[in-house]
């Protein structure tokens, strides 16, 4: 039995004894199982595998323990994956990531009582919590440059698309922009990899490659090798809020349902009238050959949310330099706006996010069936409901709990008015046809059926 | 009417909107008046005056305001003292200190509800609060070197003594030790001043000159010009705990009742059996000509607490090099002990401090009269009670509230068994005789009478 | 006509007026034409093209000027390649490289009178010059870690080999080793690229990617995008000396004649009896499928220089981790040896290099024909002569001057005893057969004929 | 016999073997005796004594050796003064200073062949040498802020004057200005000491306290404890040139003949027509009570060099804040001028210094007698000659060689036209009367007689 003890780093190296006690109290909680799994995912950083069962299977006898010292807490790994070690020493980046998981899941989890209690009632409090988590992660320091670009897109894109995300990242890096993504492979890794080369050429030595994950997704998308700041938000909604308040602009690459979910989330927020003045750089881009994806998305948005939604983003095909140049110019407007508003450069306080976008949506057969999927509501509400529908499908595809539900009860049923449902159906089928639902090599079995009401 | 707005620095530059709201809510509280006064004291940094009325009189129309921005909080000064400005710009050190006051008094004050609520019930919690405040002040970072020396002593010592404290500081600085004192002039400034020269010669570029104050004393002892880290603990007891847990060794220079209070506090703790193993460097020192002071103190300690108390400290007369060398050697033992105990280098968790030493003692005519001043109790309890008696006298001498009480009700009455009270009387008279009760130039009127029970 | 002026950086930002005058005096020299060409190569950094004529053709109207200011010297670029700019701003890395060229070619060129005078007579002086150039380039600072690995190998290797060099670089980077290569694509880029990922994972923030070039080769092998320190040595021999004195270990990947030249150079030195005690990590490695290359080399070394030469290196096939682990262990011996010898960690003074290895060999039809290629000499001399022969072939293959000579006079003729010449012939043919003589896509026309004497 | 070996630091830690050989060759030279004495002075840093014989007497058995290692050079001290050590370890600042002496005296001495050869013929070359020495000392890096203030004044000023120089330094430090002086006590230490407090309050962490000395003066004025950069120029004239080209403004405090020499040097240069456009902040200042000094100087300047000379400086009495404020404003003009001229911020290339001010003046009875001290010459020439006369008197007062000459041949004789000589006489007598010729406590015996021609 191999055992490795790790000294705390970062924020976790300065804990009070009461805080350490509380961490230890969490050892038997449900949260701790999640903690163990996230750590296991982190220890598998860089391994390309999105089937969490396949990933975790070899490590059934992996354990993680918290060891109390007068001076604070240590982590003990029992039978950890060999891949995280170099000549018997844990890779330093992985070491840091493990304590990021401890910080975000257990320490902040204790502070905000994730899971055990209902979520804080007021939206204001949720934004504060998001801020507080980013602050503890030291993600706000050094975010004053108005140059953090969030990149969304699929984790299982093809080689041409992957290469394209690298080129876009390279062009962003050449312009001193930092990259923030969702942590995994594919479109979440490519821009980071490209940016490292751009940063190197520009001698930009403090390049940031921020990965924002959440407990239910990290197993499927462990942080890639480039991520040098890992943050784990407690649920999807807070993760999405972290993206849009921390980032200064957003680029969407081809992806699957998850990417569509993110896009609908952002559209729903930007269509809020109180955000009408917000300059928010928002670019959809992909290589020649991937037009189909954006056409399908754009058609869907146009048909469901209308041209005012389409006006929120810009589609650029096959031109990485143009993407970076456009982003660069629009960031100037963001800077001006923040200055004029008295808003922080490092955190977008002034962006209004309604509670419906903040409250966790927990996909079950009931909650999915209950979604209001009809055109007879405000565009912002419609965006919110579509976002939830797609969120549920992501869960059914890759998340442990979602998959378990599908196994037990069969596919989720989505119902709504027939015109709308047809558009949803068309979009989802286009994803399946473009092989955007799974890592290459496996056939996709849909976790949902679309019904007309 | 002159107005100056200040942007936040340090921890205070990253506040959430809820936190800012809470700060603003404090604007009308009693705490805010204290905040205003502490800021005024900080703005008078470096001015030699221990009469807070004389210090504050010219600034009746001084106001301080908190201004809310989307991005956080700003401080606005109305009619601030000119002395804090250079060519119309606020001195950067003062700027930092003001936000330290905001952090410790209002931000931490909100967190721990100072004043408004009763103090936390358990000793453990108090230690955690002390730790948390030092952590927020970033005082623990960089305190791993086991080289922070706390210097106690009077603020109104004579020139020979002052020069001696500089020489000791110089020798400490030459040995790469940092200085932590109570913030004001005299023995609190000299060691810092000397250490800057020692540090300069040794190219020790990160010299720390930590001042730990508390709201009721800061007006009388504003931070001297050298202090580069200011921390304001909510009350005397937490301030004393901060000294002994943050510092790695303690030097006591000649002083008055306040110094005697500090010395009794430390003796009381070190005499606790559970601290018997703790190596705790503790040196009393002064120049030739000040022997009388230490003789009086040592005689008093011997007569009241006995030789086991005397064994806790070492008296070195007129030999700055020997002081520094001795300290240096003993720090090695501290380092070993912390390592062996698994204790932190930056914070002495393993030192046991009983609740009686942690709970605030609020000196009133009643509480002073009620003190158990007789030999018929454990040495540690006796030390605790004597400490409180001296604490009350300090309040009656220099603190606003204490002085007001004395004005209204006459001197505090101390009662106890006659043998003990005689020793107390002798010690206090020796202080008066040595002119250690007030800044030079004014005659001392005792704020207490000693009665035999 | 586009003009861009550049302010000096690094060492070149602090020149005296006399030094600036001397730089300007060089404007009309032959050296200046070389300076222009090197700058042009640097401006094409990252472009994959090893035919200097194809590379330079589009830039006939490119000019470079030195502009004198009271404060120092500026560079003016006229009609520079667009590829070096991002949104009209020169890439900072390229900016730095241009001043590295100015420093090494003109400033140091003036100091040591490159080209204009005969080379310094004594070997000692040459070593001093090499040291001085590395010192000016600030390459010695930060080289104390005994972790700089020189990687040699071809610039036109195949994809499998390229990927392998990246993997080796990755494993070296994971072990905190820095990379030094000859500056171009292929085996000179792969290890650097891999190391950046290894360094990122280990949070090794000061990763060094040193490129050492020389004027006649830089056009064919412009610095790749990763190089963050560029050094241009005046000739091949000083470049080779810089490699072996700056680096702490050497890895040889598959390559062509140039790689064979480097290998023979190092073998010749290590076989010197005065270097018998020197631990010098020296590993030949390549992926599965490239064994043929090492077999040919090893057979040639065995047949010509004997088993004592073969004992100087270790061949590891298809095991990047083993390469890095072996290197890591051997570096410990280097560290011990340097310590024991009182030698510098940053520069290998104690390695003995005979004058025959230091004096420039200028390949002409005469000098090539005059080479002593027979077995009837010491092994070290034989290695030196073989090295020269291969050096000439490199010139005939890729260097402007060499190619011009071949065009004019036909192939170089190599003569020697038939047994030896046969072995040379076999080796060279194996290179041709393995397509190691040119970038893929062009057929190789030999620039030499082998004759038996 | 106590021996201490020191590893090289700074520039001296990277020497080539040829450079080390040359250093060792210097071991038997006359320069080496000077090197030994400068080192002894440095080892006595902070000791208040301006009689070099008294200073050196206890250390007759002190020796210094250079030890050659493969990797470079070490210094060995034999029987060094105890005062430079703390607990058997050499103070780091002193350690650095010793290698500064080695660098400037032996390394640069070898490079420029000080003493052994005649000085370089052309003025241009001298300026280049001054630049080169400052560059090697890394004094130019970090001098771009146009905020280095040179302070001249006596080393034996009274307590009121000393305190005043501290206050001026404090006000300069509060305005982020750095201090450069001649290295010793008195007016050379006060401004540095004051500035450290000003810098501390403004959190100016890179405060520079540059001491520029020369071999014949360093024994009498060893670097004070604050100096953190020591530079030793080969002779007085190069030291003066270093002051005026490195500094951005000059403040003159009360002093003696040496101070008068410096003042005349600067006036002579500023009166050069080619410097007419140069803004050069030049302030004479002292406390109330020292007016007499400036009146005497100002009267002398007015009477000899005329009102155009008086217009070059500004006299401010007893107002440290006004001094600093004035300096601060004038530095803005310097910044603009340098920008407009294309001159460096870190070194004043554009200031014209005639050869007569650059060539070493070696005071002997002959050269002193030969000085042209009459009004019948240009003002600039007159200033140059008066400067030399005063330079000779400084030598006769405090320099070893000068004192020896006076002992042997009696006082220097100065001759010139009677009107001028009377003014000289008056000025010098006023210095004697004000006790500005020697450290307090000793009577002054003039080393000169003034004769009318």
Automatic annotation (TrEMBL), chains A, B, C, D:
<dbReference type="Pfam" id="PF14793">
    <property type="entry name" value="DUF4478"/>
</dbReference>
<dbReference type="GO" id="GO:0005829">
    <property type="term" value="C:cytosol"/>
</dbReference>
<dbReference type="InterPro" id="IPR021826">
    <property type="entry name" value="PpnN_C"/>
</dbReference>
<protein>
    <recommendedName>
        <fullName>AMP nucleosidase</fullName>
        <ecNumber>3.2.2.4</ecNumber>
    </recommendedName>
</protein>
<dbReference type="InterPro" id="IPR031100">
    <property type="entry name" value="LOG_fam"/>
</dbReference>
<dbReference type="Pfam" id="PF03641">
    <property type="entry name" value="Lysine_decarbox"/>
</dbReference>
<dbReference type="InterPro" id="IPR037153">
    <property type="entry name" value="PpnN-like_sf"/>
</dbReference>
<feature type="domain" description="Pyrimidine/purine nucleotide 5'-monophosphate nucleosidase C-terminal">
    <location>
        <begin position="332"/>
        <end position="450"/>
    </location>
</feature>
<feature type="domain" description="Pyrimidine/purine nucleotide 5'-monophosphate nucleosidase N-terminal">
    <location>
        <begin position="4"/>
        <end position="112"/>
    </location>
</feature>
<dbReference type="InterPro" id="IPR027820">
    <property type="entry name" value="PpnN_N"/>
</dbReference>
<dbReference type="Pfam" id="PF11892">
    <property type="entry name" value="PpnN_C"/>
</dbReference>
<dbReference type="GO" id="GO:0008714">
    <property type="term" value="F:AMP nucleosidase activity"/>
</dbReference>
<dbReference type="InterPro" id="IPR052341">
    <property type="entry name" value="LOG_family_nucleotidases"/>
</dbReference>
<dbReference type="InterPro" id="IPR049788">
    <property type="entry name" value="PpnN"/>
</dbReference>
